[in-house]
Amino acid sequence: MTVKIGMIGAGGIARHHLNTLSKIPLAQVVGVFDVNRESAERAAASVGARVADSADALLNRSDIDAVFICTPQFARDDLEAVAAGRGIHLFVEKPLGLELDSVRRKEKAIREAGVLHSVGYVLRYYDTVQQAKHYLQGRTVHLVQAYRFGTSHPAAWWRQQHQSGGHLADAVTHQVDLIRYLVGEYRDVSARFGRSAIGELYPDATIADAGAVSFTLESGAVGTITESCISPFNGESEIKLFGPDFYVQLSGNGKTVTIIDKERHVTITSKRDPSYEQDKAFVEAVASGSGDSILCGYADGMRTLAFALAAHRSAESGGAVPVEDEGPPVMA
């Protein structure tokens, strides 16, 4: 079975998915839509697809089996709910939105429609991350330390808090998600954000240039995440997981894992392309009708978003706030 796919969005992440999907034999991209017609035409030409006149026209169940929604988080409206309502399976890039109410409504619509759904938390698909997850089963993590440093997205909208949600919600969300995936749900969060330097580079920017976030997990473990989107000389990420009798470290966005205990001291670097594994898992799920290979669904992605939104509420209130427990139970 060939899975016919529509692509909404023609920016950098959409082009990345188009390139990846072109390597998957079961996938056939048949249509592309973007508000920038020129961008849509270039993206469509790269895979031999047609250009749709609107997102609504693209979401035609007789033309496509699945859709990749790769528009910025502020520009999605109810695309997910519309697609689900028409019986179209969907892949949605992270983060899922900018506030929980609309995301919660869309999650309900997707769940009730019974379509397959995947969210772009691509780092879960590293074999190194899977090894860490397997190793941690039955072990107690008591401390988490994480960080992500780098430079900002080139698009002007990304520097606007009301459009991107900031660096924590848009980029560091990958580290937030891996902590959830490996150690468990967040209970509460306390955060501080700074804007001491970004105005010099981008006078119109409203996002923070740095953040310091502390949290408690439902397990009782505690942890911190520090981040900066203005770090041109040090762009790296890491998650350190401490237990009473072990240590696990994920670096390079999860590409490399180190595991140390009394019996081992190993470091493994993945040769896997997680983007390929992620897109292949979704395409094969649509072809087979089973979502077992999908590692992050919509409700799961909603919980990761809830952490970033709670962190910003904490910064505004000056104290710790609970991370809302939204949606149905998420399978481990």
UniProtKB/TrEMBL annotation:
Residues 140-243 form the GFO/IDH/MocA-like oxidoreductase domain. It holds the Pfam family GFO_IDH_MocA. Residues 3-121 form the Gfo/Idh/MocA-like oxidoreductase N-terminal domain. GO terms for molecular function: nucleotide binding. PANTHER family: D-GLUCOSIDE 3-DEHYDROGENASE, UDP-N-ACETYL-2-AMINO-2-DEOXY-D-GLUCURONATE OXIDASE. This is Gfo/Idh/MocA family oxidoreductase. It comes from Paenibacillus flagellatus.
